Amino acid sequence: MSGLAIRNVKKSYGAVDIIHGVDVDIADGEFVILVGPSGCGKSTLLRMIAGLEEITGGEISIGGRVVNNLQPKDRDIAMVFQNYALYPQMTVAQNMGFALELAGAKKAEIDKKVGEAAGILGLQPLLGRKPAQLSGGQRQRVAMGRAIVRDPKVFLFDEPLSNLDAKLRVKMRAEIKALHQRLKTTIVYVTHDQIEAMTMADKIVVLQGGKVEQIGTPLELYDRPQNVFVAGFMGSPAMNFLEGKLTGGDTPRLTLPSGQQVELSQGAASADGRDVIVGIRPEDLAFAQDGGVPATVSVVEPTGSETHVALEVEGKEITWVMRERADLTPGQVVKLSLKSPNVHFFDKATQRRI
Fold this sequence. Notes:
Low-confidence stretches: none
Number of helices: 8
Largest sheet: 6 strands, mixed
Order of helices and strands: EEEHEEEHHHEHEHEEHHEEEEEEEEEE
């Protein structure tokens, strides 16, 4: 078994607390992504798993063995870095086999494992080249191959795609996911890109300010975010938020700060009469057949299959993702319907889901 358990893990630099008692269980063979904005503590947590940062408090175990005091080389992990960390003077084959050579493996064993990893990653034609002769995507494959040959219990990825262009990132996402499906090894992957998290992970851990905001599958986090932060972070474009008072019971209405009342298709019984934040995904907005919220078009961005429209509602900017094509112009006033079955309600004071 090569699961990973993080128990009440803390990290401080002097009097400054960076990680505040994080708990995460990662099953054997699971692909878990740590996601959050810059400075949320995700890379620090990954480095503590790797043994590159000391743990101030708590416990980390890999395969049932507590590793708090073990050196990185003794933890049976392999790490893939953002900057590839390849030796420029070595060939691809030498880079991939170097850790095995240091461990005293025989040349035949090294050649066998390097050949197997190169076959998995399509690197056979490149084994004699040096890193300077490779593209960014090829270098990242070599870094992954170097990790694979070690046959570790856990793979750790630290924002491995952030240096690649957009098209190559999409391709490499698919390659890493396919690699996981083939190897079935436990992976812990750090990114600030929630699209990477949504498309690749079995389970996502959303971090903010050194604390876990929510843990769940990609669709659990998307469909039932537990607070405003997760709701706004997961999804691209981000969820729209409007503040107001919820009233009406069976015929719910949201009264906006201006006094404008908007009909909703659903309410939240426990929120009736309370100040709330209503969240609605950009793709769930629609033209109002009657009533609706007046919104002023700011920017229209056609993407081909969709049109992204930035609008202003009562001084707040919101985004509408339209599947159909519409002839909208900046400055135009439209009426938007919030009568979606997918409206989310959050308490205004606590910002927690109602």
